[in-house]
Amino acid sequence: MADPHRRRPPLQVVREGNPGKAPVREGVRLPPSPLVEPNWLDTFPTVADLDQRETNTRCREIARREWRRVVPVLTLSAGLAAVDTQTVQDYCICVARIDQCERDLSTRGMVIQGERGWMKNGSTTIAGQYRQQLARYIGELGLSPSARGRLTPPEDNQDEDDNVFD
């Protein structure tokens, strides 16, 4: 049986109605501001080792592509502010590192030859840890259907006269 004193999520209140006119808890709203894309060369530097250099080049490209894919969407749906830059940057790094681990698993396999025989490829553990962190970022940023239901989109500053439904 459901606890009658438990708060309902704001979206559920909207869907089911609010007959008791209980206040709907809203979070702190920051004014939206443009996010500046980080210099991915700082995170994935050019190194002397050719294999690592290629890996870092690919990670830079993956992170850059993910940033450019999600920031415009998040700006509209979640109203990102400058304080959110680090969270989005970490999200993009997770995506790039998961790609790096998956490529390693595809080329070297799940089990590799070690000093003492066959052992699990370390990329399997690392990929799992990054996936757990990525799931947290997806929830924080509202990048999944269930997480989007918990977000309130930023209000547009439109005049009431400009309403297309009038």
Question: How is this structure best summarized?
Answer:
With 166 residues, the chain is mainly alpha-helical.
Topology summary:
Blueprint: H1 10-16, H2 40-43, H3 50-77, H4 85-108, E1 111-114, E2 117-120, H5 122-141, H6 145-150
Antiparallel strand pairs: 1-2
Overview of the molecule:
The chain has 166 residues and is mainly α. The protein has one domain. Helices cover 54% and strands 5% of the residues. It has helices at 10-16, 40-43, 50-77, 85-108, 122-141, 145-150, and strands spanning 111-114, 117-120. A hairpin with a 2-residue loop joins β1 and β2 (117-120). α3 (50-77) packs across α4 (85-108) and α4 (85-108) runs antiparallel to α5 (122-141). The relative contact order is 0.12.
Oligomer: single chain
Order of helices and strands: HHHHEEHH
Identify the strand order in the major beta sheet: 1-2
Q: Give a count of the beta strands, DSSP E runs of length 2 or more.
A: 2
CA distance, first residue to last residue: 44 Å
For this entry, give a set of tags.
single chain, 166 residues, mainly alpha, two-stranded antiparallel ribbon, 6 helices, elongated
